[in-house]
Amino acid sequence: MVIDSERKFLEDCRVVGIHRLGKYFELKFESEHIADVIQPGQFVNIKLKTSFFRRPFTLFEKGVGYFSILVKVVGRGTEELSRMEIGQSLNVLGPLGNSVLDFGIHLEEAVDLVCGGVGIANMLMVAKLLKTLNKRVRLFWGIKSAEEYFEKCFEYVDEVFISSEDGKIGEKGVVVNLLEKRYSGNMVYASGPLPMIVSISKAQGIILNRVICSLEAVMGCGLGICYGCAVGTSESGYKLVCKDGPNFILSEVVKLLHAHF
């Protein structure tokens, strides 16, 4: 069912695949409408029994008649998702938010993808697209431990740099340090915890208006009605993460981020 003129759909989507990826797992949904129109960087809102509000999940992968999300179990909602079985259905609203393509990332010759933890979910479709366009792509991924590690995105990038807090895989430390050492002015797409985004904004030599960041926020409706995910920007007043985002140019939101971290 189409719910408005911006091609958002409310759809009962059947689980057709469950795959473990490191500490996370991928849920693959059969989809008649959402899979056709959702773009990299956008998200869906899923209705769960254990949560009053729908829960947002970014697009991980899509294909003909399906899309998938990447889930990390952190609470009741994600625990419910972890118990889903093939053939069960969930009510899904989407696609929501803007796409990273709205910022012209696909027009760049070289792009750095920087993510922390489950922020890797945003990177697969972007990397696949850039690969088909013969762009130069580097992936910087920060994880807490080797348990989170998987390689599904790696085939679509030219170079991979991994950091881990325990030092058991990649370089010990945080991912922003890896970026800072190797930064050369490329367009950056960043997705991860807000402290990571703030660290990027404070890193040596980073050009803030060359960084697209995907912001995390608690959301109520996902449609811009409840104003529960409003964030302040430097020039345009308040914007909504669900409707105006979740992707922003870092220079637009840096003052807000610094005020909170």
Describe this protein with a few key phrases:
261 residues, alpha/beta, 7-stranded antiparallel beta sheet, 7-stranded mixed beta sheet, 16 strands, 33% strand, globular, disordered N terminus
Structural notes for this entry:
This protein has 261 residues and is α/β, with parallel strands linked by helices. It is 19% helix and 33% strand. It has helices at residues 34-37, 76-82, 123-132, 175-182, 194-202, 250-260, and strands at 9-21, 24-30, 43-46, 55-58, 61-63, 66-71, 89-96, 110-116, 136-143, 159-164, 171-172, 187-191, 211-214, 230-232, 238-240, 247-249. The strands form three sheets. It has a seven-stranded antiparallel beta sheet. Strands 11-10-9-8-12-13-16 form a seven-stranded mixed beta sheet, sandwiched between helices. The protein has a two-stranded antiparallel sheet with strand order 14-15. Helix 5 (194-202) packs across helix 6 (250-260). The longest helix has 11 residues, at 250-260. It is globular and about 45 Å long. The chain starts with 8 loop residues before the first strand and ends with a helix. Mean pLDDT is 90; it is low at 1-5.
Main sheet attributes: strand count, strand direction, barrel closure:
7 strands, antiparallel
Order of adjacent strands in the largest pleated sheet: 4-3-7-1-2-6-5
Q: Unreliable stretches, pLDDT < 50, 5 or more residues?
A: 1-5
Q: Treating each run of at least 4 consecutive H or I residues as one helix, how many helices?
A: 6
| DSSP strand content | 25-35%
Q: Which geometry do the CA atoms define?
A: globular
Element pattern in H and E? EEHEEEEHEEHEEEHEHEEEEH
Terminal-residue CA separation? 41 Å
| Number of strand elements | 16
Helical/strand content category: alpha/beta
Mean pLDDT: 90
Helix content: 10-25%
For the CA atoms, what is the radius of gyration? 18 Å
